[in-house]
Amino acid sequence: MLSQDLIKAALQKALSTGADYAEVFAEHTDSKTISMVSSKVDKIEDAVISGVGIRIFKGLRCVSGSTSSLLPEAVLACAERVAGVLNDTPIISNVNLTERIFGDIHPIKVVPVSVANSTKIDYLREAYNAAKEYNEGISQVTGSFLDVDHKILIANSEGLFAQDRQIRSRIRIQAVASKAGENQTGSSSPGGRVGMELFDLCNPKEVGIEAAREAMVMINAGYINAGNMPVAIENGFGGVIFHEACGHSLEASSVAYGNSQFAGKLGTQIASAKVTAIDDGTIPNAWGSINIDDEGTPSRRNVLIENGVLKSYMIDKFNGRRMGMESTGNSRRQSYAFTPTSRMTNTYIAPGNDSDEDIISSIEYGLYAAKMGGGSVNPVTGQFNFAVSEGYVIRNGKICEPVRGASLIGKGSDIIMNIDMVGRNLLHGQGMCGSSSGSIPTNVGQPLIRVSSITVDVKRLVSP
Length: 464
What we know:
- By secondary structure, this protein is of the alpha+beta class.
- The protein contains 10 helices and 23 strands.
- α1 packs parallel to α2 (72-83) and α3 (117-132) packs parallel to α5 (204-219).
- It is globular, with a radius of gyration of 24 Å.
């Protein structure tokens, strides 16, 4: 993307006014989205993102800028603009770059850009038709297929020169069930850091059937009584509870400024002894995996919580300065136009020793959250609110009738203390996480867990 000579010149210019660190991040990303509505291809979108982001540090001060052009004059002008914010004597006199190749633990069998649109549409239509034909109550189906080829280059004044290529593919089906003038939705959206071999890992028909099944279950669902109760949260995307309610509070972007419920608590018990939580960007071909982060630091497996004790935060270079701690390989950004900061990769609660049967049978009356939906959290206080997209009443230790409109309300530091049973069957789910450095792919995961007490709120449909 950029020659080493140009990068060195840009770094020298960025350092010319007294910065003690400079970084160049170059990107070229090709992506394709194929959307389907009413059994027809609605649109095919091809997007190209290309540009350069430049950052400098001076102590605990950070200045960043970007340009959408890879031309030498544009890159050097960007470096000059960033440097212009400072007005000190140069500290670093010369930059020497050494290329590093960190390897790729995410092999790609079939690069999506090499495959015709018609083949991708065939997979999408197979999933679409399976959802539409599942039940006559399915009134609408929409679907999409996404493939991304993300190439990055990172160089800095410490001498690093590294590159990475991140290919991801994902299919998504959403089904709408209608009955008596009301609608309920179901969805399924598997993906990974894989190419077209995604469809060796998931059957398109099963993706469509799963979306339609959820919609039909929910259109016939009733309501649970609101209140505090035990809740069993299923594996896979159920891990979004930990991701949102606790994960963001363990990112250095919050911890470094004391804006986290877990700031200053390393080495203390913050969760039930049943809880071990991990962020691992090295899981082969996982949706949130990376070889190196967006500062060029190799990804790694970080144990955040071990048997309830806080062991580590997720740290980027800049916030690590404020904390006096090294980067953990968690610096991420949506694109060159965003300033990177600490973010999650594949974050999950590790398997425990409880059987799923024992977890369900231990609940006399409560909620089984089979699938979680979206939610929100305040990382300072840990207060969260999450929708349950598919839920069931647990009565006398058995999963009974489906319920709709339920949401879980609480505080992150409370919920992880109240996890008193953890199952054995770990599963991951795929999502996009939005924060100050943009939207990035992340995995969430867990086995089936039991929260001994949590507030279940219910929004009931009001008839006209």
